[in-house]
Design goal:
2 copies of one chain form a homodimer. By secondary structure, chain A is an alpha+beta fold. The first copy, chain A, has 10 helices and 10 strands. Chain A folds into 2 domains: about 100 residues, Arc Repressor Mutant, subunit A, CATH 1.10.10.10; about 150 residues, Endonuclease Chain A (Endonuclease, Chain A), CATH 3.30.870. The structure holds a DNA duplex.
DNA sequence: CAGCTATTCACTCACTTAATCACAATACTT
DNA sequence: AAGTATTGTGATTAAGTGAGTGAATAGCTG
């Protein structure tokens, strides 16, 4: 039973890696049974028998399957490592080619202004947000204030980046929304100041019907800010992370966040000053 | 002019990496001009203006573009390294997931026979053939006879593999079809015996209208053979490599090749014996 | 408010892929 | 040797996806 899900996952992954549905199903069927005829494959993969041949031919040209031209033909899948490496290197190679092709582009003269301050950019998706977070952490020279709103975003890699920043004399301060998370992070980064945020609205929206959840909040050198949150917009139920990013000491977003963070910090260090 | 080709190549690569045409074109346009409005992008990419928005939204969710929600909206591409790394890691991650999903498949009981000797398998495409070549080289314990029919297949990696084999006491013998190639290979692998094949039919087919060209021919431990050739079957003009692979000392293909190779070697070492 | 631009949305067309069928070729059976 | 089942190829249809286009909406400028 567990394997059914494994199989479906493999098929889906293969499709994401560029194979068609029939190709993916045929390959998985072959990988399971080591060798087989078109009929065999059709039976264990519900690919129409007459279409197995086309699918196999594509797989063969990609180096994932070998064919014995007997009658009936017998097909064999290469080893799993073999297959994965083949697919992977195909994409790694493409990515390298892409890098050089992009580098060789001649820039159009227009629009090439330097990064303006006081702008707000929005980004979306875990990938981009994580990437921008890293950039900000690496670029900081003085201070990093990070509020972690969800344990899923505190990855090993993030911990490394923060550690590295601190070793470069950046003052790292981390806020969390509850004690559990605080303990986890303090554990991973003993030399960093980790506190539980005094800002209630971080963990619970004051508004009703607000199903967004603060994901991360990063203030770098008090002049660049990144805020992201999870929203459950999608019909498919999956959460999507959205964020905004601003730079410049006089950037409105940065300014207000700076104030808020100061408040949050104060309320921890000096509860009396909460009203500031 | 050169850059036009660079741009087209970048677009094609991006599509191969999973982006749609509009997405790829929009990204390249943005990468060239650093930042721009939908109008700007449309003009430098001939993507219909009205569809730039959709494309950008996808790019944003993939972490390749950031958006400034002004009016008009302004878009900005992340750095080239940023973008390439993002795309690449996406696929590397998928490949890793695939590896574990495939490993976790439960094998069907049937068809799971061990590799029979005296079978001939056919493979197709540079990828698979190169991969199978590597396997044979790595698995050899006594002797490797390789005939290189085309300089494109003698890669650095192949040279390394051969070098490594020889260091494991495998007797490596390399045949070529002309002196130029011989010199190149001898240069890369000084300690290996490189000769010009005495087999005329390797370089020129005795048949008319035969536009196939022997690509590689590998005999491992005199019991496994791989032969491949280029055929110009495709309508798109591109050449395609096809090959066959057999194992087993008594395999018909292996036997005949063994004889042929012996003849070729003899005719070089001892021209008198060509009639053997 | 009028006229413009920017943005979104809905729709058509073309192309790719999934699915089914008809038929030819090959092997197997009696 | 003839008939039957199985295998392989090609043609055909149906469904889905993406490219391309235009209409409708929203927002800005004067």
């Amino acid at each position: 039973m567990e394997d059914v899900s494994n199989q479906d996952q493999a098929i889906e992954l293969l499709q994401q890696l560029g194979l068609k549905e029939y190709e993916a199903k045929s390959f998985v069927a072959l990988a399971r049974r080591q060798r087989g005829t078109a009929k065999d494959i059709s039976e264990t993969s519900d690919v129409p028998r007459t279409r197995v041949y086309d699918a196999i031919r594509i797989l063969e040209s990609k180096g994932l399957v070998e064919t014995q031209h007997s009658n009936p033909q017998i097909f064999r899948a290469v080893s799993i490592d073999e297959a994965v490496n083949t697919l992977q290197s195909e994409y790694v190679d493409r990515a390298e080619s892409l890098r050089s092709a992009l580098s060789g582009l001649d820039p159009t003269d227009e629009g090439d202004s330097t990064e303006a301050t006081h702008e707000v950019w929005s980004i979306s998706g875990d990938q981009g947000i994580t990437s921008r977070t890293r950039q900000l952490i690496e670029g900081a020279t003085e201070e990093l204030i990070l509020v972690v709103g969800h344990n899923s975003i505190f990855t090993d890699r993030l911990a490394e980046q923060l550690q590295s920043a601190q070793e470069h004399d950046v003052n790292v301060i981390i806020g969390t929304i509850d004690e559990d998370l605080q303990a986890t992070i303090q554990d991973a980064l003993p030399s960093v100041e980790v506190f539980v945020s005094g800002l209630d609205w971080l963990s619970r929206s004051p508004l009703p019907d607000d199903d967004t959840e603060i994901s991360r909040l990063l203030l770098a050198d008090r002049e660049a800010i990144l805020v992201s949150s999870f929203t459950e917009t999608r019909a498919d139920g999956r959460e999507h992370e959205q964020g905004v990013f601003g730079r410049g000491f006089d950037n409105g977003l940065v300014a207000i966040t700076r104030r808020l963070m100061a408040t949050g910090l104060l309320s921890v260090n000096d509860p009396e000053a909460e009203e500031a």
